[in-house]
Amino acid sequence: MAVRLLKTVLHTTVFLCLAVTLVHVVLVFFHVAPPNPVSRRYSQQIDAWVYPLFEQNWRLFAPNPDSVNRQVSARTAHAGPDGSMQVSPWFDLSAVDSEAIEHQAFPSHTAQNLLRRAWAAYAESHGKDDTARSERAAMLQTYMNNIASDRIAEHRGDGGRDIDFIQLRVVTLPVAAPGSNAAGSPPKPVENRLLPWWKVTSHGK
């Protein structure tokens, strides 16, 4: 009886894995394929599966390296017992990634790309007024919110219990030309973007 049950569980697991793999391949195929009646009709379902974890692009074959450096920082706010807002100092999220990459022979994909790609996707889907005008834009805003609040909560080690709101600041700096004097005056920011305060709904809030 135990052997039969084990075989049943094994066969069911294999079937589910194959089914999920097939669904994944089909959805990614329609995502990268030229527009067609199926991809247009089920675009919402396809995008919900693909973004943000399975996003596809051609940069492996035609790399497009960044021409600027971006410093993404975050600060949080917490409503005190008297109703006042307690605002934290800025926390440099990009510096944490840089520290995790520096002197590492095999740096993690998360440290190299998660924050950078999340911001690039957010900037492409939002205007200068930071208004989400599509479901994907709203999803990417939530994605950025979760990344920043989770990292701050992990840094503080308190589970994010005192995080009610979060705000991001992105300073874009030009990449210094080869052979430039690093000891000279620091480069002027190309853009200094301050995002609005976002309500934090993660961490059980």
Automatic annotation (TrEMBL):
InterPro entries associated with the record: DUF5819
Protein name: Secreted protein
Positions of transmembrane segments: 12-33
Keyword terms, alphabetized: Membrane, Transmembrane, Transmembrane helix
Protein origin, superkingdom: Bacteria
A Pfam family: DUF5819
